[in-house]
Specification:
This protein is of the alpha/beta class. It has helices spanning 3-6, 9-24, 29-34, 56-66, 95-125, 144-153, 171-178, 184-194, 206-215, 227-237, 254-259, 269-272, and strands at residues 40-47, 51-52, 71-74, 81-82, 87-94, 132-134, 167-169, 199-203, 219-223, 242-246, 264-266, 279-283. α2 crosses α4 (56-66), α8 (184-194) packs parallel to α9 and α9 runs parallel beside α10 (227-237).
Length: 287
């Protein structure tokens, strides 16, 4: 498990408990009606699509929460490249416990592995260039901790974890300030004076980028800026501030953007549009 997730394990367990409460708080009437309480078996989680694995520790937490008596053996670790037919984990114990935890465990594992897999595609697309892929705050409500973890498993970098994690002056901040006669330069200077964080500013034009640089911005986000304009900004700002490209980034254009020379490319799609990686839990029967 990656260190940042260990440091926040209490939050992970809370997410697991909430997910299980949502699914089995009222019991599992089907399992209780047809599966003998004493019946035991083995089961495994089977990969159906190639990708990058993320979330096995969460799977362990799910089954441990359902039934501490279940034995779970992890066969593949987070970050592993997995292929169709691979078995990533095995569990043994009461059948009722296994099937009660099945859907919640798979929901976490498939979703997080999908994010790690999509992130890895973007990282691979810019391989060989000095540009890092980062996530955004476009995450599933309540799932940000795990989704950003999955991004890191896939080789990406985490942007701000929350609004208290860094200063990013965006378009609406600037629009509100302009109505009071405060411009971009003043906004940057004020933020620098009032905080110890690096100051990032979102800009949409070459002129705004130049103004942000002259104001002392540490990071300049080039939002939905044409590649030709990005190139011009890189020419005068590279090395004087970190440059981040954002908005409209896809697998088709990410390398073209990276080749411009920006330091970071933030991609909301790796968390909000990643397709879950298909996996299933297969019961083996005990023998």
């Amino acid at each position: 498990m990656h260190e940042p997730l260990i440091n926040q394990w209490d939050m992970v367990e809370d997410l697991v408990e909430r997910a299980l409460e949502q699914d089995i708080a009222s019991g599992d009437v089907t399992t209780d009606a047809v599966i003998p309480a004493e019946l035991e078996a083995r089961a495994h989680i089977l990969v159906k699509v190639d990708g990058v694995l993320a979330g096995v520790a969460v799977v362990e937490a799910v089954f441990r929460c359902v039934d501490p008596g279940l034995q779970v053996e992890v066969l593949k670790q987070d970050g592993a490249r997995i292929e169709r037919g691979d078995v990533v984990a095995r569990m043994e114990g009461k059948v009722a416990s296994i099937v009660k935890g099945e859907r919640t465990a798979l929901n976490f594992l498939c979703h997080l592995s999908g994010i790690a897999t999509e992130t890895a595609r973007y990282v691979e697309a810019v391989k060989g260039l000095d540009t890092q892929i980062t996530d955004t705050r476009k995450t599933t409500p309540g799932m940000r901790l795990l989704e950003k973890y999955a991004v890191r498993v896939g080789g990406g970098r985490s942007h701000r974890a929350h609004l208290g994690d860094g200063i990013l002056i965006k378009d609406n901040h600037l629009a509100a300030l302009r109505s009071f006669g405060v411009g971009l330069k003043q906004a940057v200077e004020q933020a620098s004076q009032r905080s110890t964080f690096n100051v990032e500013v979102e800009v949409t034009s070459i002129d705004e980028a130049r103004e942000a640089l002259e104001a002392g911005a540490d990071i300049i986000m080039l939002d939905n800026m044409p590649v030709a304009d990005m190139k011009k900004v890189v020419q005068f700002a590279k090395g004087r501030a970190l440059l981040e490209a954002s908005g409209g980034i896809t697998l088709k254009n990410v390398r073209e953007v990276a080749e411009v020379g920006v330091d970071l490319i933030s991609v909301g799609a790796i968390t909000i549009s990643a397709r879950a990686l298909d996996m299933s839990l297969e019961l083996e029967g005990k023998g």
